[in-house]
Amino acid sequence: MKPLELKVSRREVIGKKVRFLRREGIIPGNIYGRGFESVPVQVDAKAFKQLLSRAGMTDLVLLKLDNSDEPLRALIRDVQRNPITDELLHVEFYQVRATDRIKAEVTLEFIGEAPVLSKVKGSTLLHLVDSLQIEALPDNLPHSLQVDLSVLEDVDQSICVRDIRVGEGVTMLNDPDQVVVKVVEAARVVEEVPVSVAEEAVPAEEEVEEGEEEASDKD
Fold this sequence. Notes:
- There is one protein chain.
- This protein is of the alpha+beta class.
- Helix content is 19%, strand content 38%.
- The chain has helices at residues 18-23, 45-52, 116-119, 195-218; strands at 4-10, 26-33, 36-44, 61-65, 72-81, 88-95, 102-111, 123-127, 131-136, 145-148, 158-160, 171-172, 179-185.
- The strands form 3 sheets. Strands 1-3-2-6-5-4 form a 6-stranded mixed β-barrel. A 4-stranded mixed beta sheet has the order 10-7-9-12, with no helix packed on it.
């Protein structure tokens, strides 16, 4: 996958004054990284939203900073939003070197259909993990890891971490025996409440009503 590109500019506005940038359709942010000096930046909100719709937290982004000859290699590390309006408030870019292996959490993409669901009535898939930890060079970081469900043909069959394929140069950090998805039988729904349980519930309700009457008398 070709690295995504984004134009950013050095930011002079800091502190509470950054709210004026947001009103103009500009998102304040920072570029930082191990061994790099932190740089306050700003980016066009529309351009960043377009990039965000395509990029994940493991997609390499080439940041074109002002008049720099070479773009900065970075990952989107954090995006802050207004919890009420969902407005973009701030973005953090983590600058990386092409030769440094980095750890990242990659989401799982479940593909295909499990034959067991149509073969065994009442069977269902239990998804236990939705992301995994990996280590790789920035250029080798995958956007996601695919989990093929078409291999699941029987109840109690499962897919473990060791069954998931990763690209060349990518190291899986999770336990190989960790279960990602498993076929189980759906729990039966109890349609009728046992008589004994219903009988025990009556005195409890009466006690609550008596308690409420006593409270009213005291008031």
